[in-house]
Every structure is written in structure tokens, then in C-alpha cells.
Design brief:
Layout: H1 8-11, E1 14-19, H2 26-36, H3 57-62, E2 69-75, E3 78-84, H4 92-100, E4 104-109, H5 120-129, E5 133-137, H6 147-154, E6 162-164, E7 166-171, E8 174-180, E9 185-188, E10 195-197, H7 204-219, H8 223-230, H9 237-249, E11 254-258, H10 267-277, H11 281-287, E12 294-301, E13 309-315, E14 319-320, E15 324-326, E16 332-334, E17 338-342, E18 345-349, E19 351-352, E20 357-361, E21 370-373, E22 390-396, H12 402-415, E23 420-424, E24 429-434, H13 437-451, E25 455-458, E26 465-467, E27 472-481, E28 486-497, E29 504-508, H14 520-532, E30 539-540, E31 543-551, H15 559-576, E32 580-593, H16 597-605, E33 610-616, E34 623-631, H17 638-644, E35 651-662, H18 664-673
Parallel strand pairs: 1-3, 1-4, 4-5, 5-11, 6-11, 26-30, 29-31
Antiparallel strand pairs: 2-3, 7-8, 8-9, 9-10, 12-13, 12-21, 13-20, 14-19, 15-16, 17-18, 17-20, 22-24, 22-25, 23-24, 26-32, 27-28, 28-31, 32-34, 32-35, 33-34
The structure holds guanosine-5'-triphosphate and magnesium ion.
Length: 679
């Protein structure tokens, strides 16, 4: 099988996603690739703020991407689209949809062996979704350890075998070049392109050993090559290159290359590998079950100068401006202008060729994550979103901005699949829920910068409740004589504690018509009103109320009078029934690398956590899972603490489980503090 070298002219645009840990150098690598391919006349740098992609104020002030960056470049006869995904977990959902429809992902990693585990989430996601990928070890200009040791640390977190494609040439500690094992050629780093040199004499043995290892790995899936190796014949270069392309395309192996995005080292070699080894868009179309020309909208972008744009990839054929495509809910979307993106810059194109990544204007009825097609709609694309564990209660700083805020939030929500807006009934709070503090902070920054809305925010109210300990019988009488018509209602109720989780029960055992039937619902209403805010200040639960007796007045009694009597009786009864506080408890599942398990479990325990169990994480070698029950109040800041204990890798999911009694000084503090003002 020949190496796949057909380009845009025949098979369309190939889309390559850059993924991997925050700060590994993805945006830098995108800039380096575009520059090396001749797409720009200046090597943009994240370091000095000249990056084409990371130009948003959020990304600049943060020193890392907060949004997806798109690039386009031509290399020889081929056209490529680059999708630069943010690495930080708070913005991971940004890129996930685009990565899922790419032809190839480059996992950018740090050369430091100790940081290898940081690549686990990216590698796992690619393996699970069957997305072909290679590894690029960046920052080789600062590497100290051996590449071999790095690969040994990376191998356990990759399902497919890693295939070393290069061996480093060193001058003392520093890496100054590499030998390409497929081409058997040596290069010295420097300038825009590396300079070809002879393989250093002292490296022959190492090169030979590494090349044999690579060939043996390829021979696992190529019987003819295996035969050649057994016969000690030297395989042809074309065979090796096409085997490498197949290994990548069919996710049989993960080639590993290295270099430095910032210095431009190894970028030429990477471009060549991308040209030969990136699968064609038709293979991706087959993986995603695309049968007719279709567009997958992976993101909505409201932030640019052109208005609302749907960022999408065309698969299964070409798609033109003005065409009518079917949407999932049976509507039609007429495509507005189509653009290619270069960072924030847009360039109008009349059509999207097969595989193109484009921005589409004027398809306002289409959401992120949707397919559009001229024929059959492909199945939904499965993407993982990190748990949304952080929430903020928000309101506009200026009441007049209410409408402006809801409009702005609507736009931010459609752009950001990880953001959720909740209306909390019990606390009347509007809550923004996101992945972590950094994520929510960025969202609030966008609200202010882009839409001019300032909001006040604070931690959301915790859903404390209260209940009672002992039964009480209580009379309540509402009597008012004001001029002509008076008001009269008189009730006797018996209240009792109920088992946890029973809620509220109301009954009556009135005899002899002490209270006429038609006023009884009003009594219940009054009782319920008193339970909204009990004596400790919280909603009352797990109480039964029986209306046993009372009296009425034929002229002065009314619904209102009985409601007020019911409320009074209940308020007094609750106060006398030995009220106590209940706090919400969550079932929490934490996952983390085993190296962090003991730190993580003591962090959980120190937050009044009850351990339920601990063991290996299903399907994740070298990871553990911890189950515990934690008070909701203790979840505040847990995300950040767990990450700080685990190189940023631990994460948790929490779900409300039950209410538990809270007594002593902690309870006193809660009752005293009640709800603080928004800051
Ligand atoms: N020395 C050195 N520094 C590099 C190299 N590549 C990137 N950097 C620097 O590393 C920092 C992070 O690089 P980025 O390209 O922003 O990393 P990223 O992977 O896009 O990070 P996120 O967007 O946060 O996921 C920047 O300050 C770069 O200048 C390299 O090859 N060598
Ligand atoms: Mg970046």
C-alpha cells in the first residue's frame, strides 16, 4: 500500500487536533506548523503575545487558551485545518466536539517524565473514541531526561503501543538534533529547517537498536515485513512509511516524534509525518457514519466581529453557501456565508470542500453538537464533558441589567457546552454552574467585557433544612375585631417528627364540625407557610401535622382567618418541638492517579467525609477510585484541593444523597450566619 499523499485537490482537507495537558505547547505548535508550512511570514509566539490564535483577553491574561483556536495551512499540495484545543480542564469541553471529528490528534506532551501522567485524560479520550493520534514531545530544548524513559512512563496510559520514530542526538545534556528511524537520516536543529548531517558515529548502535524495535512493532501488523526481517532483508522506505501511516490511521500504534514548538525544531519532520500519516477525511466520515455531505457544528461563536458563527466540519462531500440542509429536528437551515478561520481572522470562501473546517453565518436555528446534512443525518457524536462541580449564585450588579444579563447568558450558554444555568427554587437563586473556579471566572469576565454586564456573585446557598425532635400539641387562634366585620379562626394541631426523608404529612381528625370542612385546606396552607422558614431559619421537613380541634364563628370566620390561625399554631409548635438542623449530604466519587490516592483520601476525610470504599478505577491502569459521603458544605473548594494534590488530575462527581442531622458548634454557626449578602 503506498503512502497516502493525496491532498486537498483530490481528497479534501485534513483536520488535525492539538490536544494534551495545559501549557504543553499546543498553541505554540499550531503557530510553528503554520509558520513552517509558509502560512505566515512571522513565527507567532504565545510567549511574547504574537500568537494568531490566543488573542482573546482571557487567554492572554491567563497565559493559556480558554477557547478553541482554528488555523488553516497548505503544505506542498495538501490543505490542513488545525484545531487547537485548550488543555486546562476548565475549558476541556470547548475542544472536545471538534477533536471528536478530526482526522488525527497530536497529543502534545512535556519531556519531563514526572509529567507524563498529565497526558492520561487526552490519551484515554482518544483511545475510547477511536481517534487516530500521534504524540509530539515538545520543549525538547529544555529536556533533561531520556526520551526512552518518558516513553516508558507514557506507555501504561496508552492502549496502543507507542512507536518511537526518532532518536535524539545529544551534545552533553542538550538535545541538538535527531535521527529519523524511517528515513535513517540525521538532522541538526537550527534555522527554519533542520540541517541534514551524518549519523554521529557513536549513535550507530543506538539507532540500529531503535530502528529494529520500530520495525518489529510494524511487523506485528505486516506479515511481509515480518518475513523480510526474519530473512534479514532491509525493508524499503515506502513500505515503512506506508506501514506507519496504517498504524496511525487504524489506531494500531501511536508514533512518537519530538521537537520544540517555540524554537521551530523538528517541525519540518512533523509536517512531513502529518502529510503522510494523517488519515483522509473519508476515513473519519466512515468512523462517524457519515453517508451524505454533512456539516458537524462543533461550536457556536458569538465573540467575533462577524456576528454569530457556527464552527463546523464538512464531511462526506463538499457543501456550498446558500444550500439548504436538514437539521435534527426536521427543520431546514440555509447556510449563510462560509469562512475559513486563521485565529480570529476570517476569510470568505464560497464552499466548504470535503473535510474543510469552516465558520458558517446565519444558521441561528442550529446548536453546537448538531449535524446538518443534505441527506441522511449521521448519529450524534459522543463527547465527554467534565463534571460541573462549581456553582455561583449571580445577579446583575445593577437591577436594570436584568434583561441584558439574560440575553448575554443565553449567548454564552450556547457557546459553552460545559456551562449550565440553574434556577434554584428553594433559595430563589440564579446559579451558574461550571467545571471549576477558573471556568466560572472566565465566564464572568466575558459577561463584562463582551456584553458590558457586571454581576454580583457568591457561593450558592447550601440546602440546609430543619426538623423537630418531639411531638407537640399547640393551639392557635386568630381573632380581630375591627369595626364591622371581624376575623376569627381557632385551631389545635398535633405535630410529630417523621422518619428522615418522609417529607410532610397533613391529616385531620375534627369531630362534631368544630371546624367546617371548607376551612380545613386553609389551615393546611397556613401550616405549610410556617414551614417555609422554621424557627432556625430553614425549610422544615419530616413532620406530620394532625388538625384535631378548633372553633369558628358563623360571621367572622374566613379562609384568611383559618390560614393565619394555622400558621400561628405551626410556628409556635415548631419552636416548642426541639428543632434541629439538617444538612445535605452528597455521595462523592473521586478518581485519581494511584500516586495521589493517599493524599486525596485524607483530603476527603478531613472534610468530614465518611469513606465508603476505595479500589482501582475501572479500565484505568494506575488509577484509583474513592467513594465517600461528604456534606454539601464541604464540597466548596474540594475540586481545587483535589487537583492540587494530584498534578491537576483528580476529579470528582457528586450527587445529593440524604439529609443528616447537624448539631453542636457547626450547627450553631450555620444558624447564626444564615444567607450572606451578594458581594
Ligand atoms: N522552552 C520552550 N517553551 C515553549 C515551547 N513551546 C511552548 N513553550 C512555552 O510554553 C508556554 C505554554 O505554551 P502554549 O503553547 O500556550 O501551551 P498550550 O498547550 O497551548 O496551553 P493551554 O492552551 O493552556 O492548554 C508558553 O509560554 C510558550 O512560550 C518550547 O518548545 N520550548
Ligand atoms: Mg493553548
Amino acid at each position: 500500500m503506498p503512502a497516502t499523499t493525496n491532498g486537498a485537490k483530490t481528497n479534501g482537507t485534513r483536520a488535525i487536533a492539538l490536544v494534551g495537558p495545559a501549557g504543553a505547547g499546543k498553541t505554540s505548535l499550531a503557530e510553528a506548523l503554520v509558520y513552517a508550512a509558509g502560512g505566515t511570514d512571522r513565527h507567532g509566539s504565545v510567549g511574547n503575545g504574537t500568537s494568531i490564535g490566543d488573542s482573546s483577553p482571557e487567554a492572554r491574561s491567563r497565559g493559556g487558551s480558554t477557547e478553541l483556536n482554528l488555523y488553516n495551512f497548505d503544505y506542498l499540495d495538501d490543505h490542513f485545518a488545525l484545531i487547537d484545543a485548550p488543555g486546562s480542564v476548565g475549558f476541556a469541553a470547548e475542544g472536545a466536539r471538534a477533536v471528536a471529528v478530526a482526522d488525527l490528534a497530536i497529543v502534545v506532551v512535556d519531556p519531563d517524565q514526572a509529567r507524563a501522567p498529565l497526558a492520561a485524560p487526552a490519551l484515554r479520550a482518544l483511545d475510547e473514541q477511536g481517534i487516530p493520534h500521534i504524540i509530539f514531545v515538545n520543549r525538547i530544548d529544555q529536556a533533561h531526561g531520556r526520551i526512552r524513559d518518558l516513553l516508558s512512563a507514557l506507555q501504561p496510559i496508552s492502549v496502543s503501543p507507542l512507536i518511537a520514530r526518532q532518536v535524539p542526538i545529544r551534545n552533553g545534556e542538550r538535545i541538538t538534533g535527531f535521527v529519523d528511524l524511517a528515513l535513517e537520516r540525521a538532522f541538526h536543529y537550527g534555522g527554519k529547517d533542520s540541517e541534514r548531517i551524518d549519523i554521529p558515529g557513536d549513535l550507530h548502535d543506538r539507532e540500529h537498536e531503535a530502528r529494529n524495535q520500530m520495525l518489529e512493532q510494524l511487523a506485528d501488523h505486516d506479515d511481509e515485513l515480518l518475513e523480510q526481517l526474519v530473512m534479514e532483508e532491509s525493508p524499503g522506505q515506502d513500505r515503512i512509511l506506508s506501514d506507519l501511516a496504517r498504524e496511525t490511521g487504524e489506531s494500531l500504534g501511536v508514533p512518537v516524534l519530538f521537537g520544540s514548538a517555540e524554537s521551530g525544531w523538528g517541525i519540518g519532520r512533523l509536517l512531513k509525518a502529518l502529510r503522510h500519516e494523517t488519515p483522509m477525511p473519508d476515513r473519519t466520515a466512515a468512523r462517524l457514519q457519515v453517508s451524505d455531505p454533512a456539516l458537524y457544528v462543533f461550536k457556536i461563536n458569538n465573540g467575533g466581529t462577524v456576528g454569530r458563527l457556527a464552527l463546523a466540519r464538512a464531511l462526506g462531500g463538499r457543501i456550498s453557501e446558500g444550500s439548504d440542509l436538514k437539521t435534527r429536528n426536521g427543520e431546514t437551515a440555509r447556510l449563510g456565508a462560509l469562512f475559513r478561520m486563521q485565529g480570529e481572522k476570517t476569510q470568505k470562501v464560497g464552499e466548504a470542500s470535503n473535510g474543510d473546517v469552516v465558520a458558517v453565518a446565519k444558521i441561528d436555528n442550529v446548536k453546537g453538537g448538531e449535524w446538518l446534512s443534505s441527506g441522511a443525518l449521521p448519529p450524534p457524536v459522543d463527547v465527554h464533558c467534565p463534571p460541573r462541580n462549581c456553582a455561583l449564585a449571580i445577579e446583575p450588579a445593577d437591577r436594570k441589567d436584568d434583561v441584558k444579563l439574560s440575553g448575554a447568558l443565553h449567548r454564552l450558554l450556547e457557546e459553552d457546552p460545559a456551562l449550565i444555568l440553574e434556577q434554584n427554587e428553594a433559595s430563589h437563586e440564579m446559579r451558574l454552574r461550571g467545571v471549576n473556579d477558573e471556568h466560572l471566572k472566565t465566564v464572568l469576565g466575558r459577561l463584562k467585557r463582551r456584553y458590558g454586564v457586571e454581576v454580583k456573585s457568591r457561593a450558592p446557598t447550601i440546602g440546609y433544612r430543619e426538623s423537630i425532635r418531639k411531638p407537640v400539641t399547640q393551639k392557635g387562634r386568630h381573632k380581630k375585631q375591627s369595626g364591622g366585620h371581624g376575623q376569627f379562626g381557632d385551631v389545635v394541631i398535633e405535630i410529630k417528627p417523621l422518619p428522615r426523608g418522609s417529607g410532610f404529612q397533613f391529616s385531620e381528625s375534627i369531630s362534631g364540625g368544630a371546624i367546617p370542612k371548607q376551612w380545613i385546606p386553609a389551615v393546611e396552607e397556613g401550616v405549610r407557610e410556617a414551614m417555609v422558614k422554621g424557627p432556625l431559619g430553614f425549610t422544615v421537613v419530616d413532620v406530620s401535622v394532625n388538625l384535631t380541634d378548633g372553633s369558628y364563628h358563623s360571621v367572622d370566620s374566613s379562609e384568611l382567618a383559618f390560614r393565619l390561625a394555622g400558621r400561628m399554631a405551626m410556628a409556635e409548635a415548631l419552636g416548642a418541638a426541639n428543632p434541629h438542623l439538617l444538612e445535605p449530604m452528597h455521595k462523592v466519587t473521586v478518581v485519581c492517579p494511584s500516586s495521589a490516592t493517599s493524599r486525596v483520601s485524607s483530603a476527603v476525610a478531613s472534610r468530614r467525609g465518611q469513606m465508603l470504599g476505595m479500589g482501582p478505577r475501572d479500565g484505568w491502569t494506575g488509577w484509583d477510585r474513592i467513594d465517600a459521603i461528604l456534606p454539601e458544605a464541604e464540597l466548596d473548594g474540594l475540586e481545587a484541593e483535589l487537583r492540587s494534590q494530584s498534578q491537576g488530575l483528580a476529579s470528582y462527581e457528586a450527587e445529593f444523597d440524604h439529609l443528616a442531622e447537624l448539631n453542636g458548634p457547626l450547627a450553631d454557626k450555620v444558624v447564626q450566619q444564615q444567607v450572606p449578602e451578594l458581594a
